[in-house]
# Entry
Amino acid sequence: MVDVILGMQWGDEGKGKIVDFFAKDYQLVARFQGGPNAGHTLYIGDKKVVLHQIPSGIFHENKINLIGNGVVLDAITLQKECAAVGSFGIDYKKNLFISDRTHLILPTHRALDKASELTKGKEKIGSTLKGIGPTYMDKTGRNGLRVGDLLDKNFTTQYIKLRLKHQRLLDSLNFNEDISAWEEEFFDALEFLRSFKIVNGEYFINEKIAEGKKVLAEGAQGSMLDVDFGTFPFVTSSNTISAGVCTGLGIAPQKINEVIGITKAYCTRVGEGPFPTELLDENGNYLRNAGNEFGSTTGRPRRCGWMDLVALKFACMINGVTQIVMTKADILDGLDELKVCKSYSINGEETQKIPFQMNRLEINALYQTFEGWKTDITQIHQYNAIPQTMKKYVDYLCQYLGVPIKYISNGPGRDQLLAV
Ligand code: GDP
Ligand code: IMO
Ligand code: MG
# Structure
């Protein structure tokens, strides 16, 4: 059986912490989409680690970690991440497997990402510049190179052909930065990548499932960044939703059991694009500072706002969320009053549905206001001990969404998680 953990907002919901917590109950943890645009933060003791491509189960002994075919992989980043993980005494080579169908991010993909974001007159997405979009474009355009190709003697010839094609595109975008240093690093990192256990991911994972092993699929980004259902074009280039687990790992839909949706107790977004509950006032600044809302991959300040239940209910629907984990509840501790968006007003009409092309509409968020709890909840270990005012907030969310909140995270630490 396969359970899924995924983000329900615009990413950075705390997926890394929650996957690390749940991993103890599984034998295999797999990433199914995204790439080094992800930054999943874990605390191992009091030491912080940010994982970009390696599944967040890597710190558990004897858990298999799989990078699935739906991921786009940057060998340079992988090598750096492995060094970070290795510094904790983890033998990553023992438990990390990579699917042969996983597409490779090439240095020219990174250059193309940068060139495309710098093109004058083009709407900026606020991409992480990691080459994600161009790599997925090559995948759907039937061009890209995959991890399994590394074992082919024609790899370099194929690389050169693709590089020429990319160079023409880069020239047309007037991109003239020298990428030879990246390429050198890339070829070194490919040697490192070749030393991994490269497997046929779909047989590998289905055999584990047939043996009765429990699989946890770890999402990256969030549902509102999904290429089909997010705030297009301000999205990432993969299917971040639960359907992405099937295509990103080669798993049949009936194998999926629990879909665990992660949401912050408020909302953030990094990069451009619509954000109906964004707060540009002192409350927004408060959330950013208290929540330390600065990107774990790019360091950019995250835009902050109130929780958006219209978007969350949409995420419950398209993912089939069966239970919710609410993170960063402690960040609301200092507020006198808090709000959640319960509907949108668009051209004077109220709706609880996500409209087509949000960025072309003037959306006014309509709120439900709650009294703040003004209590430090970070040291609480039992749900029963939380303030009544907070229970009211939680009950309202569960009722609105029609899905139970099963855990509340009240701090970044491994032990700061309350079972509801
Ligand atoms: P991910 O991309 O979904 O894994 O999330 P990130 O790691 O990018 O961002 C979440 C940030 O919030 C990280 O710095 C976590 O350490 C931190 N975090 C996670 N849960 C909590 C929580 O309940 N309270 C607080 N204060 N921080 C949290
Ligand atoms: P995790 O897994 C938050 C955003 C970027 C940009 C858009 C497209 O840590 O939650 P891309 O580089 O994918 O082409 O950028 O998506 N974005 C994220 N925002 N968390 C992430 O990952 C993100 N990955 C991409 O900021 O707006
Ligand atoms: Mg993140």
Q: What stands out?
A: The chain has three domains: 2-100+199-260, 103-193, 263-419.
